[in-house]
Amino acid sequence: MRMSHYVGASVLVFSLLYLSFPISGSQTVRAQQQPDASANQDTASAIQLYKRGDTIQAIKLLRVIVDKHPDDADAWYYLGLAFNSEGIFGSARPAFEELIKLRPDSADAHAKLAFALSLANEPQKAIAIAQRALELGDQSAEAHYAIAEASLRTGAFTKAVEEADTTLKINPNFTLALITKSFAHFNLRQYPEAATSLESFLASSPDDLDAETWRGQLEGFRRSTTQTPTTKPATDTPAAVSSTDYQRVFSGKDVTQKARLLSKPEPQYTEAARKAGVIGTVVVRAVFASDGEVTRLVVLRPLGYGLTTQAVKVARQIKFDPAMKDAKPVSMWMQLEYRFTLY
Q: 182 vs 13, 30, 56, 204, 252, CA distance in Å?
């Protein structure tokens, strides 16, 4: 649902996307692009700063304007756009919420708000706002991506694939959709398709903050397409595990004593994720080996902007007593969850 969630390649990609997306829909949205003659001089000056690429100064001026004139729809609109250009999607959200109060028929504002909501782990709201954007005539990729990512987070994996495909048809550079698509395929056990999407993402965003984690995941997807285990484990086992692994790694119900955690370090927020307002849970499954090492980590549920990598990093640092079976230490699968919440 890449998103991942990256300042990595994804933030740079989206900075370009929000400057280049065609703004479509109602005449109201077109009016936002061209303030009328009655717009006050401060708002006009801030808009010019934004259009010249001086988004930081535009944000400073627009914040002052909306404090003094909370009914200035143009100021709210460009404040949201300026935050988006800087990858500060969490701060863009309230700007677009205020704009929608003033201009409820703004398709573009609905689409961009839906995107921010998908990052903030509010999937139901994201879907509702995105669908409203489409009803109003939005032609950008953002609304479809918001539905794709929200669908992934709510378990509607087929819908996530469909909406990610639509996103990429509209804008092939919307690379976070490739991450969403890859994990939707993974959850559908469509491993070749999951590998293809992840490979495409890495080809387009090799410097992404989670790139190393995705490369490891990709190798797992590839192995899963060439191996057909002859013995199915008692519980679902992630892709990338060979048939011989099934004989050596146990599920929790098959051991006499489960692995016991001694310490579990907490992951850190990346600055890119904090700016983007990314909230959610990274789920990782790993083997807690008989020798006391955490190995074969497989990401089951990702977040973008470097958060997945942070979760994987600290998972490898867990200290534990191995599981026991027949009075001997054995390896065991365990699932880990890392919750990222902004306060």
A: 19, 35, 35, 14, 28
Angle ∠(70,72,74) on CA atoms, nearest 5: 135
d(CA 340, CA 268): 9
Dihedral pair phi/psi, residue 240, rounded to 5°: 85, 15
pTM over 0.85: no
Judge whether 254 and 282 are in contact, CB under 8 Å: no
In which band, very low, low, confident or very high, does the pLDDT at 220 lie, cut at 50, 70 and 90? Answer: confident
Burial of 284 (0-12, 13-18, 19+ CB in 10 A): buried
CA distances 202 to 61, 271, 276, Å, are 38, 21, 21
User: Which three-class secondary structure state does DSSP give residue 150?
Assistant: helix
Instruction: Please tell me the distance from the alpha carbon of residue 183 to that of residue 191, in angstroms, as a whole number.
Output: 9
Model pLDDT for residues 164-193, shown as the tens digit of each residue: 999 999 999 999 999 999 999 999 999 999
At residue 207, what are phi and psi to the nearest 5 degrees? Answer: -105, 15
The residue to which tokens 């007593």 are assigned: 321
